[in-house]
Structure to design on (1372 residues):
């Protein structure tokens, strides 16, 4: 199965050729290390054009670190962080948030990976009571781990709830491009403008090699972040190669083209399977993921040709991810295989 | 001064063109993420050929993380770690070791950046006494932060001292290639064979873009390291691009050619300055760094044309680093400038 | 309301006079500090008589510390700890377990404060998968925070589930005496003999002043605990005064008499309220706590004379705790007041 | 040697009888737990009379915790804490400060246990440089671990240095009473008035059973301390028994009488040994400790009758501590023994 484009993870795709070229282009002579170089300054300026001059932005290596360090910057260890039970910070980071921040994570059960004010409110008590971890951050994922997307109004409602309670809103934007593509909006409109305080801005799942940004919409929150990043083992020495990626990714709408394509491939997959009775799509397909329940015995058969992950062993729910380089013919081939195996 | 090759840091150099090509070569289709890919398996096998089949090896993003996570794997928080006062883990990682491991660092004063059994022994007391952080690890840097290199016998003597006291020996090998080039030895002969238990194996300062390896010479020490790496925010999703770098770096003696060249450029610089009375070389030049005391007023003048760092403000000691891409003509130009400014 | 015996908390009661006397009795001359004294040796021997010679036992200051340090001794930071949503370690320790151990707590919803194998199993997945905090400890509270008591069989079933999965069973025994009194068993029969690996053994809520014990039923688990306790800021200098308390508490069945009495007072309170239509007892009364739903408007009226805590604002559920010094006349007076206010 | 008054540690002494009586006196009925009781309010008010109305004061169990939590309140993990190599926080707390705060401790070599501005200045660099742990706190011990006492002017000079650099001054006052007795001053004059920002106020080494206070001279620093204390496992449930001790300790000059006596016993010991040629007193005797170098072979002989600790095995330096209950006859007996063994 070497190098076959499959549906296991958008992390399995390679690097977009424009981004690879951009990395090569900055590979000239010496530049000062640790981010004080012209490439990094340019990339940060480009991002400030997008997110606003009042933002403060830092590059790190990966999404887990963007989440953990962004959260660390806005918490003390006696705080709690409210998140969905399916969120990456709760489910897929091996306890990195607890280890680094010392905070308690409160995992909220959801139907579709999205928090709601009603669900959050259940956890908003014990303020000022020293025996209780103080609720301080709400963390949402956009697009969510279940392939769904928050609307601007939904984000604003959560932000209001947070701020009314002197809490902050964090967004894990590992797949933020897919959400923006879906919403038809610029990044700022559903992040800073909607009340998000700190954002993990990801690109690795959409054509980059490595590198993620932590975006603070209030500089007061980030005033000591350079120390947090260094102590958090996330200050790249040869920073120019991260910066070059972001510069390319954010130029010529590359991020948008990639995301629109990945989303459309997920839509195609879902729509082609609509009439297959044995496949039950379980979540709205709003970004680049398709969740479906299949007959259990069919799973290993399908995985032989296109590897993918089982999301829930018990219910035989699987996750299929599309990516910027998924081809329509890959989808059709996969659909044919599914129909064949399930009939 | 854009992209001028200077003497500030080996981190300022770019990526060797063979390594850049190797990264491009693996940029084909999908591969499984997080290190279960064929490129990573191949790179790890190549490293095991070098370090021994009984080793256990993990890739991380940077040197600070290689040090911190390698130390974390072999300590409990009530342990202490003995290191040189000038060591990177004590001086240049913003407290990352303390934050992540909870351990106490005991910083030993040295003349040349190298620990000795005599200097270490002063800290070997309080064993079994619960009020005292238990000495558990000795950490040495090869080549040292002062541009000096431990001989095999020096390493063996420290390893013996460690093991006699049920302690472990950690080596920060951020510049291990420069040390190997100097010693004329393979990596294994002065690491695992000399008694090193855990090694941070670096390449970024010698032509790579990012990526460092933690090498365990005893699998018992690393049996849970995959969790430490993940929780430590150092598990790369698109691992193949780190692996490709290591594969190229370790092929065709690229690492050695680069290191030999960098070392020779430092030697050249030192030797050309031997007769300049106003420049006092303060450390043996055994790797790719030259430390020298200059008249204080000359420093800013020189920095205007070739940026470099002052190591010690008080004594006006400066550090000049050469790298794999330093040219002899760069050295000669710099020497001419020094002579001109100091005469 | 100065010093009136109320129903707010068993922590509000004073110190039993025999225990106070015992503290005075050891106040003679000098003894070696930090637990190497004859009083501490005697108290530990007494405890080993109860729990078995193969146990290893350490005194700490408070219950939160007994829980946190006991858990720390048996976990690495990449582990998760499964507990009831109402457990003290999740709800009432301000995140101390996360801060000190770095572990993730998985909070399980329960009806009566008691975990069951079925409820736990939902969380037993992701073993060996490095992205997932590794489930490693199940923590139960005996008697539970809801005033209920696990039977020996219930504990054994959970212990088996834990051990089958290479996990460990922790018991928070802040009110272990009340549970033992209820079960009519010695401490060992429903702890070590039932499969508990580590126990927080409390006495402060049953007549002691301060001091709690961490009991390890397997010395392999505690071999470095003396360092954990010291680094955890829980090694008392004048240890003899903790030891004297335990010696007195465990002599002449003082612990049992106190617990039986407290339990009987809770039973009396519950039974006297059985016929009060406006009061709905919500949990089985198996130890020294009574949970009840009252008309919301009555609560402040009652609190004016006997302070107690509202457990759940929304449902107007309150918690009444009895203690070793509660008098039957206190209960009757309180019941009369309730009847008066609610009629 | 049961209960013989020796010279090993002031922690080996018992509890002063007035303090024991005070604990008994508050053992009446129920009081609200966790510090909201009348006894605690009264004790805090008494302390505010001493330290000033603008202070904020919290009780904890022990000195290690007072130090660690006080430091935690005023640091972030990327800070460093400058202290003497002999300080309790560096040498005798098993790494508790590093584990809990994540900070780096910088241990300064001293002759007499006391820091000086000159010695500190060596560590004041790297401000604003993210690779370097940011120097943020200077911690001094009064009386020092070597039995010496800072003058008011010495403290002011260090405080000025700290504040000029936007740093804070912490004082470990485990033996603050002995220092006050020596200086002939009230507590405030050489703490808050001299520029100390946070103080660990101890009493256990001077007649109390347990309990220490953290005194903040600026409420901004302590605004979240109640959470730090709770998460730090130092919030006592039955707080009244700590408060009663402090109330008694601070009444009728009990603290002063005890400290004056202990100091005078150390003076007596030192003066009686002045003429013994084989005993070399190594530190000024300004509080209740005497440091001396003895012939190595004499040490075990002496320890058989009066246990004490060897401070430095190599030089055969020993430490003798006196306490509030040391009798002049104890000193004379010990001196006779020394003379006998050394002649």
């Amino acid at each position: 199965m070497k190098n076959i484009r499959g549906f296991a993870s958008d992390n399995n795709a390679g690097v977009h050729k424009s981004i690879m070229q951009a990395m090569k282009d900055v590979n000239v002579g010496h530049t000062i290390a640790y981010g004080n170089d012209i490439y990094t300054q340019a990339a940060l300026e480009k991002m400030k054009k997008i997110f606003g001059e009042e933002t403060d932005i830092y590059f790190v290596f990966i999404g887990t670190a963007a989440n953990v360090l962004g959260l660390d910057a806005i918490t003390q260890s006696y705080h709690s962080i409210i998140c969905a039970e399916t969120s990456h910070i709760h489910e897929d980071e091996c306890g990195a948030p607890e280890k680094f921040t010392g905070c308690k994570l409160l995992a909220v059960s959801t139907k579709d990976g999205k928090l709601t004010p009603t669900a959050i409110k259940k956890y908003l008590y014990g303020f000022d009571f020293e025996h209780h971890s103080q609720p301080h951050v709400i963390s949402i994922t956009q697009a969510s781990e279940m392939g769904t997307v928050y609307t601007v109004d939904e984000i604003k409602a959560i932000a209001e709830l947070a701020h009314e309670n002197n809490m902050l809103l964090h967004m894990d934007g590992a797949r933020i491009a897919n959400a923006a593509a879906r919403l038809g909006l610029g990044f700022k409109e559903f992040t800073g403008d909607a009340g998000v305080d700190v954002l993990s801005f990801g690109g690795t799942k959409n054509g980059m090699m490595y590198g993620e940004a932590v975006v603070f919409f209030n500089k007061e929150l980030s005033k000591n972040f350079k120390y947090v990043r260094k102590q958090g083992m996330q200050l790249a020495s040869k920073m120019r190669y991260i910066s070059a990626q972001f510069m390319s990714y954010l130029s010529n709408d590359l991020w948008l083209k990639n995301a629109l394509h990945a989303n459309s491939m997920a839509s195609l997959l879902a729509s082609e399977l609509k009439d297959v009775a044995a496949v039950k799509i379980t979540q709205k397909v709003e970004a680049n993921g398709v969740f479906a329940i299949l007959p259990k015995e069919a799973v290993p058969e399908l995985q032989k040709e296109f590897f993918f992950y089982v999301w829930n062993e018990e219910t035989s729910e699987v996750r299929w991810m599309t990516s910027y380089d998924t081809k329509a013919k890959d989808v059709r081939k996969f659909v044919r295989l599914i129909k064949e195996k399930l009939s």
Remarks:
- The mean pLDDT of chain D is 97.
- The first helix of chain D runs from residue 17 to 25.
- The radius of gyration of chain D is 20 Å.
